[in-house]
Amino acid sequence: MANLTIKDIARISGCSVSTISRVINDRPDVRPETKEHVLKVMREAGFVPNTNARQLKIQQSRSLVFVVKGTRNIFFSDFLVQLQRAATLYGYNGIVSYLDENANEIDAAEKILREIKPKGIIFLGGSVANFQRGFDSINVPSVLTTLVTDELNFPNLSMVGVDDRAAAYTAVDYLIRQGHRKIAVLGGPVTSYPSVMRRKGAQEAMEDAGILFNDKLYGLSNYDFESAYHAMNSLLARRADFTALFAMSDVIAFGAIRALVSAGFRVPEDVSVIGFDGITMSRYCVPVMTTIVQPSEQIALQSIELLVRQIEHGSPAQTVTLQPELQQGESVRAI
């Protein structure tokens, strides 16, 4: 039997996909008789996971490439695990390619297509301008995930994510409803589409509440701890007057909180902080982060499903916008 997947082995053996996965990974939480049965089925079917020969075959016939823009973005790290899990369920192997935040993801994808020849590509983050200039050269089914825009329209490019503008509006509106009027914002540059949309959403929430958006309270930061730490220190050095902070990612929020605490401020007693993404760490940090939670598992599964439909059935590209949720933690107080 050719091109068998763990789903095939699950069907033949009468076991679940998760059980097959545990047997392959030699997990201890499988009954010995079940493990022996699965291994027997695998031997008889000629299924050999994780060998060099199989890997080479996968690269030619069942591979997907995940192009990750931002090597230090923890949200993408968590998200990749969910993407890999979803790809495996559909019988595909995910190959990860990491890029710097300022790299051109389309140039990287063109090189990957020449070297690996994957069945499809999922872009984690990206520049709308880069896609507008160069995506015509990408001839395989693709999904731009965690970013949704009406500025891109390609027959082989689906998009899955949240409405960044509306989500940021929700975050800042929440701060305003807690009584805050002096709100600082930390986020990315104009080359980052999500940052631009989140800034617009924040600005609209302030304007609807009769608050003037103050450019002096906007700090530029990449999506990593160190950059956020320095961005907050720059705001503090300018003696910026604010009672709350909207950070465009949880990672930015963590870096900013470290700078605030180092400068003698308490969160939320002196400065309230709301983040964005809802990464796992946000629920276990001190204080527990108030944040906008992206439905990352749903985004990952939807991205893989759309890509597989394009690959296997020639389905048209789609744009799917999912709803985030406000996670109320301990980092925001009413004043």
TrEMBL record:
GO terms for molecular function: DNA-binding transcription factor activity; transcription cis-regulatory region binding. InterPro entries: HTH_LacI, LacI/GalR-like_sensor, Lambda_DNA-bd_dom_sf, Peripla_BP_I. Keywords: DNA-binding, Transcription, Transcription regulation. It holds the Pfam family Peripla_BP_3. Residues 4-58 form the HTH lacI-type domain. This is LacI family transcriptional regulator. It comes from Faecalibacterium prausnitzii.
